[in-house]
Amino acid sequence: MFRKILIANRGEIACRVIKTARRLGISTVAVYSEADARALHVDMADEAVAIGPPAASHSYLVADRLIEACRSTGAEAVHPGYGFLSERASFAKVLEEAGIVFIGPNPRAIELMGDKIQSKKLAAKAGVSTIPGHLGSIDNVSEALKIAEGIGYPVMIKASAGGGGKGMRIAHSPKETSEGFERARAEAAASFGDDRVFIEKFIAAPRHIEIQVLGDKHGNIIHLGERECSIQRRNQKVIEEAPSPIVDESTREAMGAQAIALARAVNYDSAGTIEFVVGQDKTFYFLEMNTRLQVEHPVTELVTGIDLVEQMIRIAAGQALELRQQDIKLKGAAIESRIYAEDPFRNFMPSTGRLIKYRPPAEGRTESGARIRNDTGVYEGGEITVHYDPMIAKLVTHAADRVRAIGEMSAALDRFVIQGVRHNIPFLSAVMKNGRWKSGRLSTGFIDEEFPGGFAGATRDDWLTARLIGVAVSLDFAEQKRRRKLSGQLGSQVLMRSAQRVIKLDDEWHMAVVDPQDNGLRVTVNGAMPLTVEGCWSPQDLRWIGTIDGRAAGMQVERLRLANGFRLSHAGVTVEIGVYSERIAQLAQLIPAKTLTDSSKTLRCPMPGLVVAVSVADGQEVKAGEAVAVIEAMKMQNVLRAERDGRVKKLLVAPGDSLAVDAVIAEFE
Questions:
Q1: Phi, psi dihedrals of residue 269, rounded to the nearest 5°
Q2: CB count, 10 Å around CB of 139?
Q3: Distance separating the N- and C-terminal Cα atoms of the chain
Q4: Angle formed at CA 132 by CA 131 and CA 138, multiple of 5 degrees
Q5: Angle at which helices 89-97 and 63-73 cross, to 10°
Q6: Residue 97 contacts by C-beta under 8 Å, 6 or more apart in sequence?
Q7: Distance CA 589, CA 85 (A)
Q8: What domains can be seen in the chain, in order of their start residue?
Q9: How, if at all, do strands 551-559 and 543-548 pair?
């Protein structure tokens, strides 16, 4: 076994590898760019080595600096994590030449499977089902249009060296093919240094399901069941689970057999994943093989009880797999939610800044026996920068069945506090409450179909409104009690009376009757059935944890500058609530509403980023939906479009400009 390993990565995956290495008694070396000098993985490792400036191309992607870090620290092996150099055969080769072990598969396997065109040919030869398409590289738009017409729409344009949703576009028409081809090539070149793309048939209502495999250097190969990764946005996975709600035992066995056949064809010798496109009729087709650890690996670890990072390390050290296929049993259900620094209310645009508050739910066993796990690489006070992926954490729940795992995830998201940057927790919470999600009727089009106009918050019905008001009244009650104690009043006599409160929830007004009970409050909202609210909260707390009608509940709480005002987040809904006496409510309603500035004549940048291209000029007529500029942020290219018909009065940016959030790109007449 190794004495010391270097992790050639950053963020949550570097922290994840360090945890397993520490448990195995292996010393760890972190590497970091200037932007990551105070990162969590640097603090966790036994040693840390600086490797260059913030840009990954000048730090994390420079193999020579990583090798030098190994030599200077005596690291015997390198774990690449995922992304960066994890699927570069050239990196594995130079490590081998330097006498350093690569904790991953052999270079030939990486090379063969890393090329999406070559891998499909190998898969077909190995007897694996493949999707109809054109497997050769495509040189120009004209050729792309001809191939797409021949295959039949819709088609998928994909980067040959791609992964992680980058360099990937779905096209339903010639116009979308032309635009998608150029965008896919540009993203592929920026992300992988290889602009080759190919086209294949896009399967209608597909599900994205993958098989985890493990192979050693002694010819032993097994699979660990499947993960469903169909909840995607822009082909980027958002929520994953194991096992899949559609896969039965016979389908699992057939997919597993094909995955093993392909792994065996390339002498695979590490942890790897074979991804499939699966129809609603359970037919499946090979998509690609990822020759690395996957972001979503925790769900497999939780349902199998197998530490995949440990297995990778042991395999790299030459040990034979002790596991056999008959040993693999899937127990319960696990769900992973990727928590990103992005604003779901503004088309999921990336968000950067300092994590003023970062309070994840407690890890470990819950009262019901379920398990909560939070893989992260950030901390309160740390910063989310424009240089790297916007992931904050991966929240995972494991329970006896899928229904309970969803319930645990919903509750955990309600207790996850993040302030300082925008985040997608409201969206994730809304998905957990979605009926289609709960029933397991999934496809990769789920987000577009369930949120066709974008995300505007979860639906707030009368039941949820009453819960929010009930907790707001409870918070106000706690504040009033505290104020009376500080002022020396005998609060016990004053507070035990029933009272009527007027509630302003966003722009709505509600009535609530509050009756104090021995352990909480009985709250009747708008004359409906009363709620019993019990909980423990003090003004410095960021969460309210308690019960509503005897059932456990949690809400995120932010006090507003407005007296008696709170911002509550629960079940995907975020509202601002003021709690008033009747007289104060009458006065509050006399305050004039603020008039918003008209912004319809400007196009603003929705996230910090770099201007890659500009498609208009001063004086040019534009139509609603027409592309104005392309902004690159966190490795993704975003096309910004005109919101209405008009004429460009003044263009204020040029390619190469760096923009802040809400920077004006163009003014319109």
A1: -140, 55
A2: 10
A3: 69
A4: 105
A5: 40
A6: none
A7: 59
A8: 4-103 (3.40.50.20), 132-201 (3.30.1490.20), 210-450 (3.30.470.20), 462-588 (3.30.700.30), 602-668 (2.40.50.100)
A9: antiparallel
* Given the residues 288, 301, 408, 479, the one annotated as active site: 288
Three-state secondary structure string covering 496-551: CCCEEEEEEECCEEEEEEEEECCCCEEEEECCCCCEEEEEECCCCCCEEEEEECCE
Burial 280-310 (b: 16+ CB within 10 A, else e): eeeebbbbbbbbbbbbbbbbbbbbbebbbbe
The structure tokens 């925008």 sit at: 422
pLDDT of 266 above 60: yes
Residues 6 or more apart whose Cβ sits within 8 Å of residue 153: 171, 172, 173, 202
Kindly tell me if the per-residue pLDDT of 486 is higher than 80. Answer: no
- Convert 388-404 into a string of H (helix), E (strand) and C (coil): CCCEEEEEEEEECCHHH
Q: Which residue has the tokens 């993985």?
A: 41
Cβ–Cβ < 8 Å for 110, 102? no
Residue showing tokens 């929830």: 505
Identify whether 288 is a catalytic site residue: yes
Residue 164: how many CA atoms within 13 Å on its side-chain side? 22
Query: What is the mean predicted confidence (pLDDT) over 640-666?
Result: 89
**CB 508: neighbour CB atoms within 10 A?**
11
pLDDT digits (tens, 9 = 90+) for 148-179: 999 889 899 988 886 667 788 999 999 999 99
pLDDT (average), residues 41-68: 97
Q: What would the pLDDT profile of 406-437 be if each residue is shown by its tens digit? A: 999 999 999 999 999 999 999 999 999 999 99
pLDDT at 582: 87
Question: What is the CB neighbour count within 10 angstroms for residue 390?
Answer: 26
Cβ neighbours, 10 Å, residue 659: 21
Closest CA to 244 of 254, 229, 257: 229
Do 226 and 296 contact (CB within 8 A), yes or no? Answer: no
Question: Which two three-digit tokens encode residue 661?
Answer: 């959030």
644 exposed, middle or buried (CB, 10 Å; 0-12, 13-18, 19+)? exposed
Nearest to 556 by CA among 548, 539, 568, 571: 568
Number of alpha carbons in the 13 Å side-chain half-sphere of residue 469: 31
**Residue 238 corresponds to which tokens in the numbers above?**
């958002």
Whole-number CA gyration radius for the chain:
27
